[in-house]
Amino acid sequence: MKNVLTIAGSDSSGGAGIQADLKTFAAHGVFGMSVITAVTAQNTQGVFAVQDITPAIIARQIDAVFDDIAVDAVKIGMVSQAATIQAIAAKLKEYAAPNIIVDPVMVSSKGDYHLLSPDAENLLIHELLPQAILVTPNIPEAEVIAGKTIRTLPDMEAAAKTIWELGPHNVLIKGGHLAGDSTDILYDGTAFAYFRARRIATKNTHGTGCTLSSAIAANLGRGLSVAEAVAAAKEYITTAIEHSLSLGKGAGPTHHFYSLYKRAGMLEE
Ligand SMILES: Nc1ncnc2c1ncn2[C@@H]1O[C@H](COP(=O)(O)OP(=O)(O)O)[C@@H](O)[C@H]1O
Ligand SMILES: Cc1ncc(COP(=O)(O)O)c(N)n1
């Protein structure tokens, strides 16, 4: 069994953050572990409050995991504050953590709540990105990191090149926020690879970014290459969105276990 760690925030409604990450790990047959950076009060309709965990407790959680268990991959999601990022960056360096994937969560999907304080953006860019095997911004996050407007696939390619210069080994810009097919673009410093899926007409996309980055982390932990890990994760998120759940009054969560349940004959029709 491979062991994969998520360092992220808790989503009380279970669709994004730590909860999405652990479900995704379970669906991939890896052992999931979690370091919680913040507790959010949120549901399908929005984020209503955030309590940050202190950097000291975040550091102790990371120590507790790495002192005891071999970690095969690490996914970083919501990191909230500048001091949180400093604590995480220092600890991951200390333990020479492998396969670090940074999902630069900045604003909640509804665009109404900053999950990363604006003064922490620079630290995320300069402390975490250089340690990452892969960074997975959505379009608005890529615009902030690259300092460029993105409206087209060539714009995504240009932004990916700019972000790659900041130090991550690979950049995946996700196209969920553009019109048309949902095309994600991977850049490894030399060439671009396209991962396309038909756009699914649904409002239930809460936690899609968290789920995709966790699926990639699980796949890297299991020994796949970055391109293989992204390709398999793209199939996984597309199925999860296709069978997403109309829970709550807003943007519902994706279905992490659709393929597993189908094989086991456990689906309620
Ligand atoms: N309506 C959709 N149909 C198909 N794929 C989607 C849809 N919305 C998002 N995706 C895919 O889900 C993943 C997460 O993308 P995105 O929504 O851009 O990230 P985030 O949740 O971080 O904002 C990407 O692979 C993206 O292409
Ligand atoms: C705790 C937490 N972390 C991350 C997200 C982003 O979610 P998405 O994957 O929809 O961008 C969120 N809404 N809450």
UniProtKB/TrEMBL annotation:
UniProt entry keywords in alphabetical sequence: Kinase, Thiamine biosynthesis, Transferase
Family: Belongs to the ThiD family.
Residues in Pyridoxamine kinase/Phosphomethylpyrimidine kinase domain copies: 11-255
NCBIfam families: HMP-P_kinase
EC number(s) from the headed UniProt entry: 2.7.1.49, 2.7.4.7
Gene Ontology terms, MF aspect: hydroxymethylpyrimidine kinase activity
InterPro entries for the chain: HMP/HMP-P_kinase_dom, PM/HMP-P_kinase-1, Ribokinase-like
Keyword Cytoplasm included in the entry's annotation: no
Pfam families named in the record: Phos_pyr_kin (PF08543)
Annotated organism of origin: Sporomusa acidovorans (strain ATCC 49682 / DSM 3132 / Mol)
Keyword field contains Kinase: yes
Name of the protein: Hydroxymethylpyrimidine/phosphomethylpyrimidine kinase
Reaction(s) this enzyme catalyzes, per UniProt: 4-amino-5-hydroxymethyl-2-methylpyrimidine + ATP = 4-amino-2-methyl-5-(phosphooxymethyl)pyrimidine + ADP + H(+); 4-amino-2-methyl-5-(phosphooxymethyl)pyrimidine + ATP = 4-amino-2-methyl-5-(diphosphooxymethyl)pyrimidine + ADP
Gene3D superfamilies named in the record: 3.40.1190.20
